[in-house]
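Good morning,

Attaching, inline, the backbone tokens for the sequence recovery test we're adding to the shared suite. The designed sequence is right after.
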């Protein structure tokens, strides 16, 4: 077992494809600056250097988020909750436990549960074993539970959770009815007076509208351009007492 927690690389295939595309444009630009096809000359350099730079730059920004930015982003999300330490917490799409473990460290008598369906393409090394290893290394085993469960159909009782957290999970549900179900599940399991803190890079207005239509008071925080890529937004939705 590794001796340091590993929270994985988000969207690893997307990052890999960005680097491959960047390398291909670069190779073509350098190896074939001019190509003649059917007596027509195509000038590929320096033109092809721009997409090469674009792909490598944005691939590197995404990688930087996974390696550095997401820890600051986690703290920003967790700072939206006025912790007492006694909360019941649910992390939806916990992956390798970024928010689950961060929340558990703020608990005394409370308990945090992470649910996931462990999509390999959403996070490198995704799976309950990787999460268990992180939980052991971070020493929060007593305060955490892992469940293999879909955000669209949760097993938790109505009004049983004080704090629902979720980071870059809900957009991975590709159909709107599915995302609506997930938002309604979050509302259902929240206790009156509870809070949901949701972060994603797109569809945030859709989630906000779902929460607002269910009677929650929604506050949308500004996009974070410093350290998250794609830039992530946070919304805070409070269920009235
Ligand atoms: C990009 S990862 C983010 C993981 C973690 N929240 C973090 O910030 O490091 C998205 C996670 O959402 C999970 N996920 C996607 N669709 C889900 C669903 N319908 N129900 C539960 N989890 C889901 C994926 O398996 C993956 O672990």
């Amino acid at each position: 077992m590794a001796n340091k927690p590993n929270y994985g690389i988000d969207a690893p295939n997307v990052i890999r494809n960005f680097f491959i595309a960047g390398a291909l444009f670069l190779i073509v630009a350098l190896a074939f600056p001019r190509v003649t096809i059917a007596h027509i000359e195509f000038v590929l350099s320096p033109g092809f250097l721009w997409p090469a730079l674009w792909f490598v730059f944005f691939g590197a920004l995404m990688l930087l988020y996974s390696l550095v930015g997401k820890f600051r982003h986690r703290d920003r999300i967790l700072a939206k909750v006025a912790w007492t330490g006694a909360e019941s917490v649910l992390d939806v799409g916990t992956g390798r436990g970024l928010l689950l473990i961060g929340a558990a460290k703020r608990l005394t008598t409370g308990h945090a549960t992470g649910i996931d369906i462990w999509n390999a393409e959403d996070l490198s090394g995704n799976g309950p074993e990787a999460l268990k290893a992180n939980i052991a290394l971070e020493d929060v085993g007593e305060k955490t539970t892992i469940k293999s469960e879909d955000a669209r159909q949760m097993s938790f009782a109505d009004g049983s959770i004080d704090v629902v957290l979720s980071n870059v999970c809900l957009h991975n549900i590709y159909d709107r009815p599915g995302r609506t179900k997930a938002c309604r599940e979050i509302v259902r399991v929240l206790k009156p007076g509870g809070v949901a803190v949701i972060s994603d890079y797109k569809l945030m207005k859709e989630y906000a509208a779902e929460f607002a239509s269910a009677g929650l008071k929604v506050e949308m925080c500004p996009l974070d351009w410093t350290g998250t890529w794609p830039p992530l937004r946070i919304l805070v939705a409070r269920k009235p007492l």
